[in-house]
Structure formats: C-alpha cells, structure tokens
Specification:
Layout (H helix, E strand, L loop, with lengths): L1 H26 L12 E6 L9 E6 L10 E3 L6 E4 L3 E5 L5 E4 L4 E3 L5 E3 L4 E4 L2 E2 L5 E6 L4 E6 L7 E6 L2 E2 L6 E3 L5 E3 L12 E4 L1 E3 L5 H37 L2
Antiparallel strand pairs: 1-2, 3-18, 4-17, 5-6, 5-9, 5-14, 7-8, 9-10, 11-12, 12-13, 15-16
Helix pairs in contact: 1-2
C-alpha cells in the first residue's frame, strides 16, 4: 500500500504546486508588465520488479508566457511600453543588470529614473539620471530629452537613451523578484531596433478567467488525491486485520 500512498502523495503535491503558481498569476493580473508562469507536471512510470501499472507525478518547468499584454493608454510622459519584442534594462537589488517590461517610470529625489518597483533604469551610458527640468520627453527609440529649468521650448537637450535589448527568449529565466536574466549571466548589448510606445503601459498577460478555472481544477485534483490516500489507509488497515487471523 505504500506504493499507492506515494503515487497519490506525489499527485497531491503537484496539484498544490499548480494551485500556488496559478494563484500567483491571478494575484498579478493588474501588475504592469507581468508575465504569467506556466504550471505543468508529467506522468512518469514507477520502475521496479512489477508491472508498470502505476505512475507518479514529476514537476516540469515549462517556463514563462512571453506573449505581450494589452496596452493601456495613460498619456503620461514617463509611461512607456515596449512595442513587440524587447526588454528594458534595469539594476536589480544586488546591483546587477536585469530585464523588465514594466514601463511605469518615476524620478526619485536623487534624479534617478526608476520603475514602480524601485529598480533603476539603465541608459546606454549607465544608470539613467536626469537633472532638474521643465519638461521631459522619451522618444520611441528610448531617447531621453529634457528642457532644463529656465530654458525656452527650443532648448531641448538629449541626455541618454534607455537601454533596450532583445535577447533570445529561450536564453532567459525569471527570478523570484519578477525580473528576467540570461541563464548564462551575460549582459546584453543595446538593440536599436526595439521600439517604445509613449504614454502607454503594458498590462499583465494573465488571463484571469483561465487562471481561476485552473485553480479550481487543481483543487479538485488535490481532493481526489487525498481520497486516494485515505483509501490506501483503509486498505492497509484491512490487510492488517486479515494478517491477524493468519
């Protein structure tokens, strides 16, 4: 009975993990630039001196849904969205370069351009910082220009260009902080073919209805696996009673 119990236990564990992944996706349905995680498990035969009639569940890591989310027009000067393929380079909490699609930008008290999550945006010449200005403009190619304090409308100065990159998607992995990095740890060079949409944000690509149905389905599967474990316990108790009379 222990084999039956292990098979049911492995299935329940994967159902619970699937629930966690889909719940995390659903919780980020309104997070700008969020990419949904896939959840998947595969049936594997139980090897041994018996017929291969039982299988256990093995977790797979199929990756991330890289489809673009819908655009939300805001009209704000500091809101940008990557048009199609591409990423915005930022500095993570450890000071290393990482990638994001979150284009809701702010300027902190030191003049650094940051995302809503507090990550400093990279320019082609290093972390992007702007001096006090009357007006700021971001071009579709990522060029950041300002009109300094006290200057006329004709005095528009180009500061730097937001670092936009386009690495192969199969080379990327998602960190626990929601940022993306190359699996080999390499730093991407700027890709000048990447374009931005000004005054817009890319919404999460999570399908709320699909995620909710997946959570309910995983909960139902978990209940079935628990019933199987209970049945294994009953069978084990019955076998023990039979042994008492032998």
């Amino acid at each position: 009975m222990d084999k039956l119990l292990y098979v049911a236990m492995s299935g329940a564990m994967q159902s619970m993990q699937s629930q966690n992944i889909h719940s995390h996706n659903l919780a980020n349905v309104d997070t700008v630039g969020f990419k949904a995680d896939f959840a998947q498990a595969r049936s594997m035969p139980v090897f041994g001196e018996h017929y291969p009639s039982r299988v256990y569940a093995m977790t797979e890591n199929p990756g991330v849904n890289y489809d673009s989310g819908p655009l939300m027009i805001t009209g704000k000067d500091l809101d940008i969205a990557v048009d199609g393929e591409g990423w915005i380079a930022v500095v993570d909490a450890e000071g290393n370069e990482a990638l994001t699609r979150s284009g809701e930008l702010f300027i902190d008290h030191l003049g650094f351009v940051t995302t809503r999550e507090g990550h400093t945006v990279m320019g082609n010449a290093g972390p992007l910082v702007v001096p006090p200005f009357e007006k700021l403009e971001i071009g579709v190619d990522g060029t950041v220009s300002i009109r300094a304090l006290g200057q006329g409308p004709e005095a528009l100065t180009e500061l730097d260009r937001i670092k936009l990159v386009k690495p192969p998607l199969e080379e990327l992995e998602k960190g626990l902080d929601g940022l993306f990095r190359r699996k080999d740890g390499l730093i991407e060079d700027p890709d000048f073919t990447v374009r931005l949409v000004k005054g817009a944000l890319e919404r999460s690509n999570v399908n709320a209805v699909e995620s909710l149905l997946s959570i309910l389905s995983a909960a139902r599967q978990f209940e079935l696996q628990v019933k199987m474990m209970e049945k294994s316990e009953e069978m084990d108790a019955s076998a023990a009673r039979v042994m008492q009379f032998t």
